[in-house]
Design goal:
5-stranded parallel sheet; Rossmann fold; 142 residues; alpha/beta; 15% strand; 7 helices
C-alpha cells in the first residue's frame, strides 16, 4: 500500500455525497486502504475554513475527526522550520501557490510521496517549474 498526500479539495470531496467518478475511485481506494492517505496540519485549517461556510462551529470538530478516523487519514505535523523556509522560497518561485500548497509540495518532495489534488493552478505551477513532480490532478467538476 503506497502513501499519498491529499489536499483540501480531496478531503472536501470525500465529505460530499456525489463526487465526480475519477475522484470517487480515489476515495474508494482510500476507504478500502489500497492507498494510505495522509495530509499535513495546515490542510486541516483550510478544511475547517471551508466547512464553517455550511456547518455549525460545534459540528466541525466532530466532522473532521470522524472523517480522519473513518478513512484512516494520517495528519503529519510540520514542526521543523525547514519546511516553512523552503515553502517561502517556493512561493517566491511560483507565486500562484498558496502557502499551504507550498508546504504540501515541500513535504511530499522530502518524503518522496505523491500529491493528489483538485487545485489545477497548483499542478500547473509545480509541473512548469518541476516537470517530474509526483502530482495527480482531479477535476472536481467532471
Amino acid at each position: 500500500m503506497s502513501e499519498i498526500l491529499i489536499d483540501t479539495g480531496i478531503i472536501l470531496n470525500i465529505l460530499t455525497k456525489n463526487p465526480p467518478q475519477k475522484l470517487k475511485k480515489l476515495i474508494d481506494n482510500i476507504q478500502e486502504q489500497r492507498y494510505k492517505a495522509a495530509t499535513i496540519q495546515p490542510i486541516i485549517l483550510e478544511v475547517s475554513r471551508w466547512l464553517i461556510k455550511t456547518k455549525k462551529k460545534t459540528e466541525i470538530n466532530d466532522i473532521i475527526y470522524s472523517l480522519l478516523m473513518s478513512y484512516n487519514i494520517t495528519v503529519h505535523p510540520l514542526t521543523e522550520l525547514k519546511y516553512y523556509i523552503s515553502a517561502g522560497i517556493l512561493r517566491h518561485q511560483i507565486p500562484q501557490l498558496s502557502t499551504v500548497d507550498a508546504l504540501l509540495y515541500i513535504y511530499a518532495k522530502e518524503m518522496r510521496i505523491s500529491i493528489h489534488t483538485t487545485d489545477k493552478s497548483m499542478v500547473d505551477g509545480i509541473k512548469k517549474k518541476f516537470p517530474k513532480s509526483k502530482i495527480q490532478y482531479y477535476n472536481y467538476l467532471k
